[in-house]
Structures are given as C-alpha cells and as structure tokens.
TrEMBL record:
<feature type="signal peptide">
    <location>
        <begin position="1"/>
        <end position="23"/>
    </location>
</feature>
<protein>
    <recommendedName>
        <fullName>Transglycosylase SLT domain-containing protein</fullName>
    </recommendedName>
</protein>
<keyword id="KW-0732">Signal</keyword>
<dbReference type="Pfam" id="PF01464">
    <property type="entry name" value="SLT"/>
</dbReference>
<feature type="domain" description="Transglycosylase SLT">
    <location>
        <begin position="36"/>
        <end position="134"/>
    </location>
</feature>
<dbReference type="InterPro" id="IPR008258">
    <property type="entry name" value="Transglycosylase_SLT_dom_1"/>
</dbReference>
<dbReference type="InterPro" id="IPR023346">
    <property type="entry name" value="Lysozyme-like_dom_sf"/>
</dbReference>
Length: 159
C-alpha cells in the first residue's frame, strides 16, 4: 500500500509541471457579440451564427488550442495560410483576426454550398458532409446545435 502511495505521488509530481498555471480566460459575451456584429456586417453573415460558432468551438476563449485548431472559432491555421496572408491575420489567438479568417472561410462555403447545414458540416470537418449533400444522411449534431443556438441568440438580441 505504501509503495502505491509513493508511486502515485511521484506520478502526480511528474504531471504537475505540464499543467497550465491558469486556464485561458473567456471573453465577455457582449464583447463576442460586438465582434460578431462587426465581422458579420463585413461578410454578410448572421452575427448570431458567428457568436454561436464561437461558443461551441471555444466557449469564448480566444487562446484555446485543440487538435491543430486555434482560437475563438477554432481555425486550423495549417489549412488557411493563404487566406490568413490575404487578410493580414498572423495571430489566430487574437479574437478579431480569428473571427475574420473564420468568416472569410464561411463566406466561401456559403457561396459554394448555400445550405447552412452543409456549410457548418464542412466548417466542422464532418466526414459525413458529402453524404449529407447527396441526401444520404441527415444534418450533424454540430450543425443542428449551432443553428439552434444562433436562433436563440437572435431572439435574445431582439431579432
């Protein structure tokens, strides 16, 4: 028993230095809504849709990183280098730059597909997007959640 406690203590001490000192701080909802309004106007994208994506992807934390994606809208920088260069975006942890890159990509997807569900499935990298497009499956949970949250935000914002 004593040996197990010592082993557990050693394991904890080895893991602790790898843990972040503090978690990334989320942005205030009002700040995200204002940013979404600004960027949405630039790209003719519903600001509540942008805000819903930001909530789902990062819980409004602009510095979060996961599976090769970064920031508020979880942009995969490796796939958007040219887009980032064109937009002058060099810091995906900057909320404005991140949402700008995401909105630019979303606008491209809207022009390509038109269907909001398909746009969201492709944005999310859903492997079933092609099957959805061909009518072989229904919308993803991700797309449905984003659209539902976007609708709730529109009501909340009096639209």
């Amino acid at each position: 028993m004593k040996g197990k406690i010592i082993l557990l203590t050693v394991c904890i001490l080895l893991v602790l230095p790898a843990l972040p000192i503090r978690a990334a701080e989320p942005m205030e909802e009002e700040a995200v809504a204002q940013l979404a309004e600004e960027v949405g106007d630039m790209y003719q994208i519903c600001p509540e849709l942008l805000q819903a994506i930001a909530w789902k992807e990062s819980r409004y934390c602009p510095e979060v990183e996961s599976k090769g994606c970064t920031g508020l809208m979880q942009v995969a920088g490796r796939w958007h280098q040219e887009r980032m260069k064109e937009l002058g975006a060099d810091n995906l942890k900057d909320a404005h730059q991140n949402m700008l890159v995401a909105a630019d990509y979303l606008q491209e997807l809207v022009e390509t597909y038109g269907d909001p569900v398909m746009v969201l499935m492709v944005y999310n990298g859903d492997s079933r997007a092609e099957d959805y497009w061909k009518g072989h499956c229904g919308p993803s949970d991700y797309a449905e959640e984003i659209l539902e949250l976007s609708a709730q935000l529109e009501v909340q914002h009096g639209k």
